[in-house]
């Protein structure tokens, strides 16, 4: 596979999509949680199931030379406070333990109030292994005594060749094989009596899938977004020393 570069048209399509999605998120206050908008969803989450599905439709959104993946997931954590959940999620130096093997390395770079800058080395494994060095700007907002949101935007993604070897090479951002160009995560946390519901909407950008390379690319860009979302929600719950329910 020859390395490619993210082009301006692909990035502009993603930027426009994200702007529309974020405007809608800002306007959505009731219900606060995606799961609560549907009785069946809320019932399944309350029973311990981790849900993950496309935000709309049944497949990624095609844009010029790229794909936008828009997923949403929900989980329920009994017998905790939202403050406890936030301590786990904001423990960025320890994400490499909480979210392994998807997170190989993690580091808090800066922290000021509700704003964080973090570094994560991510592993995407499906048919082949892809390692990515990513930097994120993260902002938390307290909506009420029981409700919080968290918006995370990647500010840099670099593909790593021969990760952790003496000859490892970190490519320039926006170059490589295009398995992940951008990743934005939008969290909602709500405390309900002695329990907390957590949700994450993940919007990412990857290259499109040429037919000749579909056997290599499609498993990474097609299946990994859902699996990563489910793993993240489950790992958050597990980190709070609670038994995981099967997803």
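Q: What amino acid sequence fits the structure above?
A:
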């Amino acid at each position: 596979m020859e390395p490619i570069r993210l082009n301006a048209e692909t990035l502009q399509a993603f930027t426009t999509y994200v702007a529309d999605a974020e405007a809608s998120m800002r306007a959505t206050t009731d219900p606060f949680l995606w799961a609560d908008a549907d009785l069946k969803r809320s019932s399944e989450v309350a029973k311990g199931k981790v849900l993950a599905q496309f935000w709309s439709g049944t497949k990624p959104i095609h844009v010029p030379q790229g794909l936008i993946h828009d997923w949403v997931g929900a989980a329920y954590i009994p017998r905790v406070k939202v403050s406890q959940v936030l301590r786990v999620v904001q423990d960025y130096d320890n994400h490499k333990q909480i979210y392994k093997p998807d997170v190989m390395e993690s580091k808090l770079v800066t922290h000021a109030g509700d704003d964080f800058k973090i570094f994560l080395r991510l592993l995407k494994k499906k048919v082949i292994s892809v390692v990515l060095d990513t930097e994120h700007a993260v902002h938390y907002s307290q909506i009420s005594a029981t409700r919080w949101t968290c918006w995370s935007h990647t500010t840099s993604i670099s593909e790593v060749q021969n990760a952790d070897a003496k000859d490892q090479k970190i490519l320039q951002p926006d170059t490589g094989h295009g398995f992940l160009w951008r990743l934005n995560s939008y969290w909602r946390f709500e405390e309900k009596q002695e329990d907390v519901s957590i949700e994450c909407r993940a919007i990412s950008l990857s290259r499109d899938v040429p037919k000749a390379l579909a056997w290599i690319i499609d498993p990474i860009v097609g299946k990994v977004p859902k699996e990563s979302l489910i793993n993240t929600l489950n790992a958050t719950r597990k980190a709070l020393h609670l038994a995981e329910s099967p997803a």
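Q: And what stands out in the fold?
A: The chain has a mean pLDDT of 91.
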